[in-house]
Amino acid sequence: MAADRTVLIAYNPKAGASDRQALLERLSTRLRDLGLLPCLIADLAELQQQATELERRGELRLVVAAGGDGTVAAVAERVSPDTVIAVFPLGTENLLAKWLGSTSDIEPFCRAVVRRETIAIDALLANGRLALITIGVGFDAEVVRQVHCNRRGHITKWSYAWPIWRTFWYYAFPTLQLTITDAAGGLATMSGHEPSLAEVGEAAVTDGLRTQKWRVPWVFVANLPSYAGGLSIVPQANPQDGRLDIATFSGSGRLRGLGYAFWIALRRHIYCRDFRSTTADRLRIEADREVGYQIDGDFGGVLPLEIRVLPARVRLLRFDGKADGRSPEMAGR
């Protein structure tokens, strides 16, 4: 066995099922049987300290992020871009784990740890925080805020039912001001119709940067094509293209919101006349009132929000050689 035998297992005490601790103990036992040195860590500050020191000494094999999507992002923020992160799904949605093909079945998971094949993906930097999956502003952020403010124990999919219903009736759908900047010289926009200048302002080019202003009540910024509940709002999102994938709806109000939800469920929303999407390098979102945003399913704060992409920022453990959207040339030892 190589010198890099230590496996740090970072877990979120609030994520996943109540039998999580027993499962993690079984994982530790199996890794130990394979000649590795597992160490369970619940404190993120301790994780950062140990990962840095073990990496410096060449003793760290990888870090296991045992929890939901928010746990993976929190781990990625605290380890170097060269550190391998293995996603052990214990959360509610586990969108990144599904994209990777990761599993909480101990035997195949441990086989992947031993192989240690990796893939690099982009990350989104949102007001200094990493996001690996999606950022939502407005309605869905308010739902997330209510869920986390009123949580009692572990969150399940049913935990979102009442917050969605309550938010639907009182949310005001304020207009969001987007400033989209692209250093590549152009903004590639998909749309079922030509938007008016009230929705999309004239583009301006300054110092080689092309900037455009959008005014919309709904915006989603995706790194992965997946969204909660098995939905996909930005199906073309690619976590390996070094770009922000931005999607918006221009209509406001509850009836429009119901219509968008219907078309999203049918995976036909990209043909709606109110839908637009684009790719860019940077994005700033503002509003003239207090509006929240969510990062990978966790409430992040209130606007303004600055987002940029960090290409190939996170190195993840591969599972079974293939995941949606991955290119083989990105994999390595």
Walkthrough of the structure:
The chain is α+β, with helices and mostly antiparallel strands. It folds into two domains: 6-117 and 318-332, Rossmann fold (3-Layer(aba) Sandwich); 129-311, Sandwich (Tumour Suppressor Smad4), CATH 2.60.200. The chain contains eight helices and 19 strands. A hairpin with a 2-residue loop joins strand 10 (204-206) and strand 11 (209-216). The longest helix is centred in the N-terminal third of the chain and has 14 residues, at 20-33. The radius of gyration is 20 Å and the shape is globular.
Roughly what is the average pLDDT, rounded to an integer?
88
CATH topology title of the largest domain: Tumour Suppressor Smad4
Categorize the overall geometry: globular
CATH class of the largest domain: Mainly Beta
Which series of helices and strands comes N to C? EHEHEHEHHEEEHHEEEEEEHEEEEEE
CATH architecture of the largest domain: Sandwich
Kindly estimate the percentage of residues that lie in beta strands according to DSSP: 25-35%
Largest sheet: 12 strands, mixed
Q: Determine the fraction of residues in helical runs and give it as a percent range.
A: 25-40%
Q: How many beta-strand elements?
A: 19
Could you name the key traits of this structure?
single chain, 333 residues, alpha+beta, Rossmann fold, Tumour Suppressor Smad4, 2 domains, 7-stranded antiparallel beta sheet, 8 helices, 26% helix, disordered C terminus
